[in-house]
Amino acid sequence: MRVGLAHLESPNPQNLLFAQQYGATDIVFNRSKLPIVDGVLPLNEIVKYRLAVEQYGMKLAAFENPAVTMMTDVILGGPRRDQQIENMITTVRNFARAGIPMFTYGWNPSQVWRTAPKEIRGGAVGTAYDHNMVADYPPVHGREYGADEMWANLEYWIKIITPVAEEEGIRLGIHPPDPPSDSHGGVYPVLNSYDGYRRLMDIVDSPSNSILFCQGTIAEMSDSANDGIYGFIDEMVRRERVLYVHFRNVSEPDPEHFHEEFINTGHVDMYRAMKTYHDGGYGSFFVDDHVPHTHGDTPWGHRGRAFAMGYMQALIEAIAKQS
């Protein structure tokens, strides 16, 4: 097990040096600034990102969350679905041929939802969600999209893209909807429960059909109450479906009311969680995802990320020495 760094949009030398100095081994680009050319992320541009990372002695492990416009009709079954799928097939092939082992994405065209932030320890600020504040929000995409329709769209996509990924030797994973409530602006988030992910894997049982295990979002699910999250971590790790982990903490397992916490506060025992990954044989990496904003920090959160990276490294070292 090891620590990486995510939430990078481009191979900024200052941030790559920060990652190297604080002990990251793996880099993940999130919502990258790669140019979109005819609906595709070009191979030569992806290679430039990889080479930039390698100059700092690290590995470009994954790209996650491309521009949602690249997949909106795939997710919603819109008129351009098949063309967008063809474009995504080309993009997945380009990632693989550029030497990128993983590509992860969301199945939520409305993206992440948050309401007013929450003041936490020492006046730091964490993101928060209160469903009561958005319950009457009109459909974002023109109408309601129910569970059956959204599952049909997901199955259509998975059955096409998984064989492509297998052929190219790249692994794909889906990030859970954040928040995992019953509706995101009129769209039902199909992967908002443990059973949702089990059903996803049953569509095509393949290592190329896996999870971006956002532990923070999964910790928001009601399934995670009463220590449920540790059992789900163990289950997914032993099934070898966890590509990598967003290792962060939240206040409570309530998909309609929660706030982000520091990594060492919140309702999840992070030592127990890390040990569960270890005991299940997990061999990939952890990233901090987003972090609370502390006094004097940069907009990107250098202080918060340094704290989270050090905390993760200490957990990994302690558990390894006790095993």
Automatic annotation (TrEMBL):
Kindly give the Gene3D superfamilies that the UniProt entry links to this protein: Divalent-metal-dependent TIM barrel enzymes
Per the record, the pathway is: Carbohydrate metabolism; pentose and glucuronate interconversion
Q: Which reaction does it catalyse?
A: D-mannonate = 2-dehydro-3-deoxy-D-gluconate + H2O
The UniProt GO MF terms for this protein read:
ferrous iron binding; manganese ion binding; mannonate dehydratase activity
The answer to keyword DNA damage applying to this record is no
Q: Name the top EC class.
A: lyase
Q: What is this protein called?
A: mannonate dehydratase
